[in-house]
Amino acid sequence: MKKSFLVFSLFLFIIVSANAGSINRPLNDGWKVQIGNEAYRATLPASAMGILIQNNVYRENVLNDSTIKSVDKSRFSRPWLLKRSFRLDPIAAGQKVYLKIDGLNYAANILVNGKLIASPKVAKGAFRSYSFDVTNWISDENDIMIQLRGNTAAKSTNGHGTSAIDGNMGI
C-alpha cells in the first residue's frame, strides 16, 4: 500500500507524502494581515516590520536612529492575524497532509479550516519550526489563520540596549 502526504509550509507549505517521496506546496504568497482595523497583504517569510515595509507603511531605513521614533509601537503590542486560503485536490485514502511552518516567532494560535491546530502553549519560541498533521481538517477549499504575537518581554538583541521594535514577531 502506497502512503502519501502533502505538506504546506510557511516558509509555509503543505506536504503530501508518498512512498516515492512527497509533494511540497509553498504557501508563502497571498497572505492577508489584519492588525486591529488595519489590513495589509504579505509575502512570507517576513518580520512584522518587514510586512509594514512591504506595504509602504515605513521605508526600509525606518530603523536607523533618526527615524525609529516615528514608528507606532502600539501595532506590535497586539496580535496580528494572518490569513490565507488555498485549494487542494482531493487526497486519496492513505495520504497524509501536513502543515509545516519554519521560523515562527514568537507565539501563535494556528487554525486550519476553523480547527485549532496549535495554541501558544505549543507554538511558542524564537524561530521555531513545526509540522502538524492536518489530514482530518483539509478539504478542497481551505483556510489557514495564524494569530501571531511577538515577544514583548524580549531583552536587548540589537546591541543598542533596546529590544527589537516589533518584538521579533514574524514567520
What does this structure look like?
A hairpin with a 2-residue loop joins strand 8 and strand 9. Helix content is 4%, strand content 43%. It is mainly beta. The radius of gyration is 17 Å and the shape is elongated. The model is unreliable at 1-5 (pLDDT under 50). It starts with a strand and ends in a 22-residue tail after the last strand. A six-stranded antiparallel β-sheet has the order 5-4-6-11-8-9, covered by helices on one side.
Q: Could you give a quick summary of the protein structure above?
A:
The protein has 171 residues and is mainly β.
Distance between the termini: 36 Å
Q: Describe the sheet with the most strands.
A: 6 strands, antiparallel
Strand content: 35-45%
| Order of neighbouring strands in the sheet with most strands | 5-4-6-11-8-9
Helix/sheet category: mainly beta
- Shape category: elongated
Query: Ranges with pLDDT <50 over ≥5 residues?
Result: 1-5
Helix content: under 10%
How many strands in all?
Answer: 11
Q: Helical element count? A: 1
Which key phrases capture this entry?
about 170 residues, mainly beta, 6-stranded antiparallel sheet, 5-stranded mixed sheet, about 5% helix
Architecture blueprint of SSEs:
Elements: E1 4-10, E2 12-18, E3 21-26, E4 31-35, E5 38-42, H1 48-54, E6 80-87, E7 95-104, E8 107-112, E9 115-118, E10 128-133, E11 141-149
Parallel strand pairs: 1-3, 1-7
Antiparallel strand pairs: 2-3, 4-5, 4-6, 6-11, 7-10, 8-9, 8-11
